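With this grant's support, we have settled on a layout for protein records. One resulting record is reproduced below.
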Amino acid sequence: MTGWRIEGIILAAGKGTRMLPLTDALPKPLLTVTGVPLLEIAAEKLLRSGASRLHVNLYHLGGMIREYAGGKGWPVVFHEEEELLDTGGGIGNMAGDLRDADHVLLHNGDVLSSFGFDEAFEYHIGQKAMVTMILMNAGEGGRTPPAAVTVDAAGAVLDIGRPPPDGSRALGYTGMAIISGEALRYFPGEKKGLVPVLLEMISDRPGSVAGFDASSIDAAVWGEIGSPSSYIDIHRRIMVESVLFDGTIQPPPMPLRTGAGSSVDPGAEWSGFLDVGTGARIEGNTFLEDCVVLDGAVVRNGTRLRSAVVYNDKVLEVEK
């Protein structure tokens, strides 16, 4: 990406409704994955990919996100939203501060992947696209994005959200994209989704929205933390299956991780995997199977949990 003015966007304004009531206490971008907040994983990936500045939109519990990001020393600009503007409007709200960028790297605040932007950026330049959506083969089980984006043989996005016609294929959107500076004029400063913006581009200039298939990258893996079950599954994939999503997240040598200042009583038992956050405490006579205990949380004597997230003095159990 040498020679281009590159900036990055992290979408962090969502309310995390499917993660309630946990996200009443903690915004989803600050949820940790083996001790590393999602926000940090995305930020470091964007900076490694050549972004000179990061732009983060804020709404729900934005002060917590601002405080965390501000303490990392990243070159970051925050964009407060008085009301939720959705993805298209959120990007449009940032457009004034992005006017000097040749290209913008977009990363949803709740996704993980083993791939970055380098291959997709090369493809984006080669296609002379206004926007390149980073896509993957779609499948079942929540470990790949749902099939929603129709592309033709040349890689142009034809449609989004409808079944593909004969001769075309549908791929899943990973929550990562590359936006050329010229495309920013399509993004309004008012509430609007990403899909209507992209469909307008496709209508105005067929072929202007491209789809890069990240499935072509060796060992490509992806995950989204959209629900408690997917949050537990991400930890299972890393801690039990040793899936490598990102260099900032290293699978532990065994399916147990204990953060700094945490304590696990010798009388505690666990099975599957157990992730224990910084300063957390697990008392004796407890049993935890496939659990995440967030920073500072306490698991009291006699507690038995399966597939659960423990935060503060509360428990969010995964519905079976």
Remarks:
- The mean pLDDT is 94.
